[in-house]
Amino acid sequence: MSNSYIHAEGLCFSYRxxxxxxxxxxxxxxxxxxxxGEYVAVLGHxxxxxxxxxxxxxxxxxxxxxxxxxxxxxxxGKELTDDELLQLRRNVGMVFQNPDNQLVATIVEEDVAFGPxxxxxxxxxxxxxxxxxxxxxxxxxxxxxxxxxxxxxxKQRIAIAGIIAMMPKCxxxxxxxxxxxxxxxxxxxxxxxxxxxxxxxxxxxxxxxMNEAAEADRIIVMNDGLVLMEGTPDEVFAKREELxxxxxxxxxxxxxxxxxxxxxxxxEGTGISTPEACVELLQRALKART
Amino acid sequence: MxxxxxxxxxPAESLIHRLDPRTKVLLALFYIVCTFLCKSxxxxxxxxxxxxxxVLLSRIPMRLIxxxxxxxxxxxxxxxxxxxxxxxxxxxxxxxxxxVKIYAEGLWNALFMILRIMVLIVGTGIFLTYTTTPIALTDxxxxxxxxxxxxxxxxxxxxxxxxxxxxFIPTLTExxxxxxxxxxxxxxxxxxxxxLARAKALVPILVPLFVSAFNRAxxxxxxxxxxxxxxxxxxxxxNVLRYRAIDWVMMGAVIALGVTLIxxxxxSFGFVLG
Lengths: 290, 274
Description:
The complex is a heterodimer. Chain A has helices spanning about 50-55, 80-90, 110-120, 125-135, 150-165, 180-200, 210-215, 235-240, 240-245, 250-260, 275-290; strands spanning about 5-15, 25-35, 40-45, 65-70, 75, 90-95, 170-175, 200-205, 220-225, 225-230. The termini of chain A are far apart. In chain A, helix 4 (about 125-135) packs antiparallel against helix 5 (about 150-165). The mean pLDDT of chain A is about 90. By secondary structure, chain A is of the alpha/beta class. Chain A is about 40% helix and about 25% strand. Chain A is globular, with a radius of gyration of 20 Å. Chain A has two domains: about 35-60 and about 80-245, Rossmann fold, CATH 3.40.50; about 250-290, no CATH class. Chain A has eleven helices and ten strands. In chain A, strands 6-7-8-3-9-10 form a six-stranded mixed sheet, with helices on both faces. Chain A has a four-stranded antiparallel sheet with strand order 2-1-4-5, with helices on one face. By secondary structure, chain B is mainly alpha-helical. In chain B, about 65% of the residues lie in helices and about 0% in strands. Chain B contains eleven helices and no strands. In chain B, helix 2 runs antiparallel to helix 6, helix 2 packs parallel to helix 11 (about 245-265) and helix 5 (about 75-85) runs antiparallel to helix 6. The relative contact order of chain B is 0.17. The chains are: A alpha/beta, B mainly alpha. The interface of A and B includes residues 101, 115 and 123 of A.
């Protein structure tokens, strides 16, 4: 975790009205670094600019100000050629919210092949990439199924496989679990963790679920088009008041610790973002009492 | 989940099902030509025999094939009546003084016309709609028509549109049901009233359906861009269609059928078309 993969400085973006006159600023100067191999969660309530930020990273939207460097490629201040755009998008993949709206083909394996087909990957590498990608998300037995017969979580895993098959360095998950049921969400989160740990892919997970954010190495909290705070989950969830002030909550386990401390219970330690860490904290406190 | 079967595809394991879809498109065309080559009773008999062989080879149940003929019964009846009454010939069958004159040639013409239409429908059905999925058909057409790219016909783009349309039919069907239920829950009534009232009741379904379809289209466009889609140029394919021996054999067989039919035309048993 040494090299900065994504470097943004004073990044701005405004949506324009249809007549092009009025501007609605969505990002007002975002400066962050995301490092190679990192698992970052971006938190924020609706309209905080977190999805806009994600769409700038692979130039689905073009920033209106600031600098953005991705994988050593300067993206701002000039017109990108088509080749540069393709290069960027094969390196920075994106998984969207609605699994139905990102699957193109009527057979699972053909959908997974869509990305590498576009890149012109020749046979037999193409076949191998597709099979590996489907195996990586644990869907090998579904390779010849029709996507519309799968569950939401399975569809989303296929969408992820479609991105993996392009062999990206970084994958952005734009609220990819928001439309899934708890089981589907777990499937997708397990897959994300696996990609980050075993494949060394840089992961940016944009979400408004606190429990999901707690799994990340680092959390970036956005509010009103700006970065409000960043830090490890423990550091971020320690600032409960600030989070509540911008319409966010801390995970239930962290809330419990905060509540106990407010009532004067002495709890030593900083691990509050996962239930396991909280249990440890409480056990230690209980032992100290007896 | 609904099972969505478009068209009349009949899933089965048969020789015809296993053929390359491109072969089937070509065979359907050859077969149409064959039906028009027939002129004599003997060659028509051969044609009918060939269609029976195809039915057996394709393992499609007879009732499905008969059902496919139902919608064209009217056309068959109409054209054969016209043939019976309008054809002039030499062998008058009705008494001289009748106003309506029916000639033997008219009856033969009608019979041949009926056979020709029925074989045409059944034959193309066996090669295309019954044994080939729409998606395979799209692939086949894209590849068969790819020479047209040289004269700037956007073959790939049309095939892509077709694929996406097929992909989204089940999704939009599900969505329509959801919207209908939502409107029913709000007291909408789709089943009673005049035709006009019922048509009007569909508006609250169509409007949200269109809005959502457009939203889906925008999402899909972004997702495709993220997956480096930039048209058909420089694209490779995961599943490349390949002609196998059986494809060549079938094409040879149908061409041989055509030649046989032409030869049988000179056989003067029964009636021969002029």
